[in-house]
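Supplementary notes for students who missed Thursday's class. We covered one full example, reproduced here. Read the sequence, then the structure, then the short commentary at the end.
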Amino acid sequence: MAEMWINMGPQHPMTHGLWNMRVKVDGETIVDSEPVIGYLHRGWEKMVENRTYPQIIPMADRLCYGSSFTWSHVYCMTVEKLMDIEVPERAKYIRAMSDELQRIGSHLMWLAAIGTDLGNLTVFLYATRDRELFLDLFTSLCGARMTYNYCRIGGVRNDAPENWVRDLERTLDYFEKRLKEYDMLIDKSKLFRMRMEGLGYMSAKDAINAGITGPVLRASGVKYDIRHNDPYEVYDELDWQMCTHDACDTWARYRVRMMEMQESVNIVRDILKKMPKSGPIRVKPPRAAPVGTAIARMEDPRGESLMYLVGDGTDKPYRLSVRSPLFVILSATPQLLKGSKIADVPSILGMLDVCMGETDR
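Structure (token representation):
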């Protein structure tokens, strides 16, 4: 049978964003593939050169609508390094707690998406329902559901409102019970396991050589998490376990993210125990940054997010470059897909948790 190229995108429910996965098939078997991006390019890195440092914070929120807080957080950390600013202790705990709540919200959005990808609407409805509770927490914390504009250079915008911690603890208690429900729906389903186990194999060596980070890397058995290997904020003071799996396949990527949601719950509980009950949440930064460069990175829900900043002594950056984890992971999709069937593409790509906003910028 003759080989042929098929376009899965750029407008396709499976892509979870505006991009095109071109696959070359021989019958039903994939022999080659090519990810094509650029449909969502906004010129983000160029636009920020014309904005002051505080004005860039809401733009960083919009790098990925699924993990808005972590992107504005890594931006603020980069500027703080350039300006040599020390963030108050309580603000560090609030930031770390917000990161973990964002991780849960992002993973729930991913879980809802793969539920429909793999033919189970119940998973979509349950995950969407539970994500609303975490969006409600962010709404009461900062007034926004998705693009928070909450992190600030030197701390956070405001402290938690009255009864917020009480609502948070109730949400965590509820959510832990729901995680067991997901295990019953997915882990014990033969249909789900058939569409995940053994697919999209990538060894630890290949994942490292490809520059892959985050849950996809840890699902190949590599124990690498920036919160552990290069801790920021207060992660070196917290008790938590890195989530890894050694199956190296699509099933492992699913399990790592499910385990991470439980671990994020544990981290938030530990933060609530150790966080100072009072104290400053912000320091006032200078308007202009000094001449120099700074790099900051953190563990985004999708992998290593990094920013490189060049200051020229004015109130605007000379250059701000972004390292997107998904940009690197998508580059490895030809290796993940080769040898699989065309029907396996939604399952394999769904476990990568694609967000094109940060990829294209």
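Commentary. The mean pLDDT is 88. Strands lie at 4-8, 20-26, 29-36, 151-152, 155-156, 291-300, 303-312, 317-323. If anything here is unclear, bring it to office hours.
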